[in-house]
Amino acid sequence: MSKNKFTITITDINGSKHFYLSRIIKKIVFYIIVFIFFFLVFSGFYIKYLDDKLSDLSRKREDLLRKNQELIQSNEQMQKSIEEKTQEYAAIEDKIISFERALGLENEQNLTINDRLDNLKLTNEDQTKILSQIPNGFPIANKGVTGSFGWREHPLLKRREFHPGIDLRAEIGTPIYATANAVVEFAGYSDNGYGYNVILLHNFGFKTVFAHMMRRDVVKAGQYVKKGDLIGYSGNTGLSTGPHLHYEVRFINKTLEPLYFLKLQRNNISNFFNQERRVPWQSLVKAITQRQIIPVQKQQSSPQVQE
Question: I want to staple 119 with a disulfide (CB 3.0 to 4.6 A). Which of 73, 290, 294, 299 is the partner?
Answer without folding.
Answer: 294
